[in-house]
Amino acid sequence: MGIFKKLIQAQKAHNEKVRDKGLQHKTWAFDLNGKHHTIEAKRSGLADPNWDIIVDGVPHEHFPWHFGSARTVRFEVAGVQCVLDMKAKVTHTAMTLYVDGKPVENQNVD
Q: Is the distance from CB of 56 to CB of 37 less than 8 angstroms?
């Protein structure tokens, strides 16, 4: 087997591993002022590094992503300030959601 075929197979295996670990889609769920809310961060695709932020099922922001970068997305949910910090890592994008200054655990298993 040629080196290029091995590299392609290794990349495909990595892509499946990333997809299986939920690293392309993060979901946070929390209660705020007596109402349940969800925040999603979805990567558009493996070949497309753009991200979509979805707040309670409604698209909030779509933005390009460059590996090695970081981004902070600010928005409000029920009048409360939320901040999504995104930082590029070697194999995935690390994300932390803060609601009213407190971190919220994501619902994915990393």
A: yes
Question: Sign (positive/negative) of CA torsion 89, 93, 99, 102?
Answer: negative
What is the domain count for the chain? 1
Mean of the per-residue pLDDT values for the chain? 78
The answer as to whether 109 is a domain residue is no
Q: What is the pTM of this model?
A: 0.66
Residue 93 and residue 84: Cα distance in Å, rounded? 12
Give the structural domain span for 36. 3-104
In this structure, are residues 98 and 82 in contact, taking their beta carbons and an 8 Å threshold? yes
Any idea what the CATH number is for the domain that residue 19 is in? 2.40.128.180
How far apart, in whole angstroms, are the C-alpha atoms of residue 84 and residue 50? Answer: 15
Q: Are 54 and 62 in contact (CB under 8 A)?
A: no
Identify the residue with better confidence: 27 or 9: 27
CB of 11 closer than 8 Å to CB of 18: no
